[in-house]
Amino acid sequence: MKKARLFFQLIGVGVLAISLSIASCTKEGPMGPAGADGTDGKDGVDGNSTCLACHGQEIKTTIEAQFSQSVHVSGLNAVDYAGGRSYCARCHSHQGYVEFAETGAVSGNITNPTAWECATCHSLHETMEAGDYALRLNGAVNLLTDNTVVVDEGNNNTCLNCHQSRRNGEYYDKYTEAQTFTREFTEDDIAVYQTAAFGPAGSATLNATSDTLTVVFDVPTTHVYISSTHAGPHPSSQGNTWIGIGGYTTSEGTIFSGHSDGCVKCHMGEASGHTFKPELDNCTSCHGEKNVYMDAIAGRVEAIGEALEAIHAIHKEDGEYHPMYASITREQFQAFWNFMILLEDRSNGAHNPTYTEALLDQAEALLGL
């Protein structure tokens, strides 16, 4: 009996000890040491609420669905063609963009390039505060066509890194002495180039079997040679239009400041989000249901295109304009260049109305329209 009584006494002591321990855990302990400046430190941002604002399952699913509709992830931005080429990869593949963001260059060709994904633009947060989207490239941008021109437009910088011209008109208008270039054309190109713009002393000769056309392009110093069917500033050069630089005008262009945070505001609205498709409601809320101005700009661009086609500087096929190999006067070339800027910009003036009109005015004057 004594042993049993002792056993239950020990159990009681143990229960009491545990109770006292639990009670002591519910009480606030002693105050810790003071902060570096002698005061209590500031509470940090609540991790859950901050992270879930973007990383919650519902919004994550929405963003992924939107992004799946974007050209950036669909592969239409020439991943297979340009994503692996070292010069092009910085914008045409996930691997190239990340390497450029981390090192400032793409060291060599990429073997298996892939399209963009979330981690292409987004990396690790720096502050964990609102507005820190962990963008890999959101600092100031040096333009490819002129490294001395630096543009710093906040979150727009992420877009400007890729959506800018790769070359200016001087890339083609560079000869100080007369030049001659000879090219051969076959199949469907024969009909296109029989009446080519081959310059004052140029010629087009069809061989005896009529399956090869040899064109000699004469390029005196008054002319410019369009040396590629991809001639122009480069597709998706909207940033230069927005900045107001790269074309031939009689007046200096300026950044279009009509809308703050323009790229993001217009291309990442509530409905479009990560599709990056411009939302009509963003325009019509101020400009009305039908934008007569943009229709008028489109008409002027088309008229310039028709004039350039008439002198064989460009060729229209399946409703789309394509540059042609040609020797044309410097004035005609400058009009051609302005046309290509507006054609690749694809906004009919929305990205910079003032600069767009300046490019159009100059092109029309040079072509006598």
TrEMBL record:
Q: Which UniProt keywords apply?
A: Signal
Concerning InterPro entries, the annotation shows: Multihaem_cyt_sf (IPR036280), Multiheme_Cytochr_ET (IPR051829)
Task: Respond yes or no to whether keyword Membrane is given for this record.
Answer: no
Q: Where is the signal peptide?
A: 1-23
Know the name of this protein? Uncharacterized protein
Species of origin: Marinifilum flexuosum
Classification lineage: Bacteria, Pseudomonadati, Bacteroidota, Bacteroidia, Marinilabiliales
